[in-house]
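Hallway conversation turned thread

IA: we were arguing at lunch whether anyone had actually written out RNA polymerase-binding transcription factor DksA end to end. Turns out nobody had. So, for the record, here is the sequence (139 residues) and right after it the structure tokens. Reply here if something looks off.
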Amino acid sequence: MAKVTLEDGYVPSDDEPFMNDRQREYFRRKLLSWKSDILREAQDTLVALQSENENHPDLADRASSETDRAIELRARDRQRKLTGKIDAALARIEDGSYGYCEETGEPISLRRLEARPIATLSLEAQERHERREKVYRDD
């Protein structure tokens, strides 16, 4: 992908061609920044867990500390999975398929991509998918 310059404050708009170079660069930067934040938070958690070698004499304090640790690790695991989805979105930017619904091939709205840059389905396709999932879950 050619080097694209974005002016400060640039936000993709429906007034320009869908997934042009500027929009792809905007979302690429957004995804990279998000991934960087997640990795930094994970590193901070690791440092905190390593330094937190507390030996609580009180069972309630120990249980509370263990619960907090388990919640933190679960959150980090979810974020680890999220980095894989971010990497997949970055790959789609590179191959030109980013921003298009995997199910219909139609463009995913810029508003949806802004809110969920890793989206692979249009809002309509996502809603259909969730309805089907609910039907099967209710059986």
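OS: looked through it. DSSP finds four helices and no strands in the chain.
IA: good, adding that to the notes. The mean pLDDT is 88.
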